[in-house]
């Protein structure tokens, strides 16, 4: 581990520069979040029709929810399976296996560098959104304490490890991409990206508690806007840790099995 | 006239080769239908979650919002059938230099790039969109008069043309932005704004999304026309906008080609 840390540090530096080279792409991807964070709150605000709350959410809380959601999604939600599956299929993986750093840590450094850049780019947008909505509704105060940052970090790991495990399917499947697309529907719904989970029907809420997606972004966002506090917050953090363990185990297993029968096509 | 007959013949050849291609990947047909249904279901679930808590979004009741969703889905299927996937290959062609082969063909390059690939596998989605629309109208208990239907179809056609020209311009950017691989996201974002009625925006944004970046013409205004809430004057406006966008796209392409340096040679 002592030998690994400086290597990871070097990887982080390399991938930071690499990510910066793709800042135009990062900017374009960011627009998706901009639209989400502009359209969804306005849709909800147009749905109150004079009510004080909807499903327990005041207008200000609803707006804060989507702004914080868009911000943390940039750092947390990993899409590395698309690239990694392609790299496995095309044999790019072969050259990585020869390097003196485990491929896993390389992927980790690459992912977190890209996510950091995406979040930094989004901060000004979030501030602008905050000012814009501040004129329309009274925004809920945010609780961005240690618990929030802890759950953001854990959420990042849940998403990264899930995406890694999923990408390993490319060792066996020719069309892993269809599986990935399939993954996005429950992911976008149950991570709270579409709407706060508390506003969904009971059976979906129950499903959310049992699946990993809530433990990526929904938990930190609900902590930030004060919907998840005290014991419930700690239970959710525990849930994040459980899912990190499960996803790591699954990913490790799949990776080991996959590497054993990887033939390095394209070499 | 002879030119027109020539292009009609070329387009028939496109249809034939697309159909042959489709027959080779028949399993894909059902996979496409399945995924399109999945995304439609996903969007309907979003609507459902909101309407659990309210009776109207900016004055749109749930069945009216379904008409809007069906319109968007219909438009989407038309776009995907007619040009989206072929045109989206333009940045790859620029990067690999294969655009050269297109430019030397004795056919207009925009025509070839846009229309060579007809995706018949989207026909399933087209049917689903129509069924959803009919269902929404029935649950509204409203049968639109023929004039509204014609107005609607005209507006959808203009919406397709507006989206086409926008997408073409975004893809054209790849002539300069060779390394940017996700230009298609720009067009996606454009369509994304139109997923909900543009009435949810405040006056400034609503004007922006009607007159400057005309996303309102993709779904909101056609759906309103079908429901009898938008006048025929909007069709005239949509037509003017679509033509302006189309001409702008064409000029932009001509201008971009002057900067094209080719990657391979």
Identify the notable features of this structure and list them briefly.
heterodimer; A: 267 residues; mainly alpha; 11 helices; 72% helix; globular; B: 265 residues
Number of helices, where a helix is a run of at least 4 consecutive DSSP H or I residues of chain A: 11
Order of helices and strands of chain B: HHHHHHHHHHHH
Please write the string of helix (H) and strand (E) elements of chain A.
Answer: HHHHHHHHHHH
Unreliable parts of chain B: none
Roughly what is the average pLDDT of chain A, rounded to an integer?
Answer: 92
As residue ranges, the low-confidence spans of chain A are none
How much helix is in the residues of chain A? over 70%
How many beta-strand elements of chain B? 0
Protein architecture, described:
The complex is a heterodimer of chains A (267) and B (265). Chain A contains 11 helices and no strands. Chain A is mainly α and 267 residues long. In chain A, α1 crosses α6 and α2 packs across α6. Chain B is mainly alpha-helical and 265 residues long. In chain B, α3 packs across α11. The longest helix of chain B is centred in the middle third of the chain and has 27 residues. Chain B is globular and about 55 Å long. Chain B starts with a helix and ends in an 8-residue tail after the last helix. Classes of the chains: A mainly alpha (267), B mainly alpha (265). The interface between A and B is medium-sized, with 33 and 35 residues.
């Amino acid at each position: 581990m002592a030998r690994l840390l400086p290597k990871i540090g070097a990887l982080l530096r390399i991938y930071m520069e690499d990510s910066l080279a793709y800042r135009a792409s990062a900017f374009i991807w960011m627009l998706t979040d901009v639209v989400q964070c502009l359209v969804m709150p306005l849709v909800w605000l147009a749905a109150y029709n004079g009510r004080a709350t909807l499903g327990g959410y005041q207008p200000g809380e609803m707006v804060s929810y989507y702004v914080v959601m868009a911000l943390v999604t940039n750092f947390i939600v990993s899409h590395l399976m698309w690239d990694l599956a392609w790299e496995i299929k095309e044999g790019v993986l072969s050259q990585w296996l020869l390097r003196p750093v485990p491929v896993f840590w390389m992927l980790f450094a690459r992912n977190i560098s890209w996510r950091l850049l995406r979040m930094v780019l989004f901060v000004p947008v979030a501030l602008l959104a905050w000012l814009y909505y501040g004129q329309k509704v009274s925004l809920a105060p945010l609780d961005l304490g240690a618990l929030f940052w802890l759950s953001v970090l854990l959420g990042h790991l849940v998403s990264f490890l899930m995406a890694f495990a999923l990408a390993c399917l490319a060792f066996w499947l020719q069309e892993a991409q269809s599986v990935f697309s399939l993954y996005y529907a429950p992911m976008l719904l149950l991570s709270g990206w579409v709407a706060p989970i508390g506003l969904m029907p009971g059976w979906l809420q129950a499903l959310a508690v049992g699946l990993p997606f809530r433990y990526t972004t929904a938990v930190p966002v609900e902590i930030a806007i004060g919907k998840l506090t005290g014991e419930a917050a700690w239970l959710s953090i525990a849930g994040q840790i459980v899912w990190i363990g499960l996803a790591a185990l699954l990913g490790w297993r799949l990776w080991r099995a996959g590497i054993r029968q990887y033939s390095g096509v394209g070499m | 006239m002879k030119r027109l007959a020539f292009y009609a013949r070329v387009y028939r050849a496109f249809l034939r080769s697309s159909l042959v291609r489709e027959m080779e990947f028949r399993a894909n047909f059902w996979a496409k239908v399945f995924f399109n249904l999945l995304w439609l279901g996903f969007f309907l679930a979003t609507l459902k979650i909101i309407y659990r808590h309210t009776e109207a979004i900016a004055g749109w009741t749930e069945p009216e919002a379904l008409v809007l969703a069906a319109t968007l889905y219909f438009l989407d299927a038309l776009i995907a059938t007619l040009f989206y996937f072929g045109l989206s290959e333009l940045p790859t062609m620029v990067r690999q230099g294969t655009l050269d082969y297109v430019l030397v063909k004795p056919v207009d390059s925009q025509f070839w790039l846009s229309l060579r690939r007809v995706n018949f596998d989207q026909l399933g989605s087209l049917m689903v969109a129509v069924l959803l629309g009919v269902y929404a109208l029935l649950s509204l208990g409203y049968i639109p008069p023929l004039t509204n239907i014609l107005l609607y179809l005209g507006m959808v056609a203009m919406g397709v043309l507006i989206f086409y020209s926008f997408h073409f311009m975004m893809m054209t950017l790849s002539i300069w932005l060779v390394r940017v691989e996700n230009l298609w996201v720009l067009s996606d974002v454009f369509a994304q704004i139109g997923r909900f009625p543009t009435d949810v925006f405040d006056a400034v944004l609503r004007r922006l999304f009607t007159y400057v970046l005309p996303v309102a013409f993709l779904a909101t205004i056609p759906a309103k026309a079908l429901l009898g809430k938008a006048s025929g004057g909007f069709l005239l406006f949509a037509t003017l906008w679509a033509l302006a966008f189309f001409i702008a796209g064409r000029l932009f392409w001509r201008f971009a080609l002057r900067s094209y340096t080719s990657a391979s040679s």
